[in-house]
Amino acid sequence: MIPDLKEVQAAVKRIAPYVHNTPVLTSSTVNEMLKATVYFKCENFQRGGAFKIRGAINAILQLTEDERARGVITHSSGNFAAALALAASALNTKAYIIMPSSVPSVKRDAVSGYGAQIIECEPTLKSREATLLVQQKKKGATFITNSTILTKMTFRPVINFITGSAFSFGISTMVIPKNMAKKIT
């Protein structure tokens, strides 16, 4: 279900105290190369370094008090692990992150630095999912994934709303990374 404008506005308002209002910037060099005016929505300036904190905060804020008290859990080896850990920390909620043993220490350190409990598993999807099920049952935590975020805060209208100021400049096309295009189309 795609949320209507009121739902998107409510989500944006709900998460506002916890996220940065990231800038929209241009580059004269890129503009000159492409013979067009290009705007960049700089989500790399977001808390945790990625847009995923927006969805993680929104998902946790929609849990009941009881669910938040039991914590959140996911399996991830990258940005989503950090985003959920940071969101949980900001909302005084426990976070349990199932991470493959092969994850680089810089990613592991970021997640643990945000206060999450890392639970290691073998570097296979089957192991991640099995470990998650065992730990979720043991801890009673709510499973939150990127697909949860898609349900709780659909990307297309939220991106459109967040970048609305950019569209007031007359933007007619938005270019997004290929891996994101699969999630919002």
| Helix run count | 11
> What's the end-to-end separation, in Å?
13 Å
Order of helices and strands: HEHEHHEHEHEHEHHHH
β-strand percent reads: 5-15%
Number of distinct beta strands: 6
- Relative helix content: 40-55%
Q: How many domains comprise the coordinates?
A: 2
CATH class of the largest domain: Alpha Beta
Give a description of the structure.
The protein is α/β, with parallel strands linked by helices and 185 residues long. The chain folds into 2 domains: 79 residues, no CATH class; 97 residues, Rossmann fold, CATH 3.40.50. 52% of the residues lie in helices and 12% in strands. The protein is built from 11 helices and 6 strands. Strand 3, helix 5 and strand 4 form a beta-alpha-beta unit. The chain is globular. The C terminus is likely disordered.
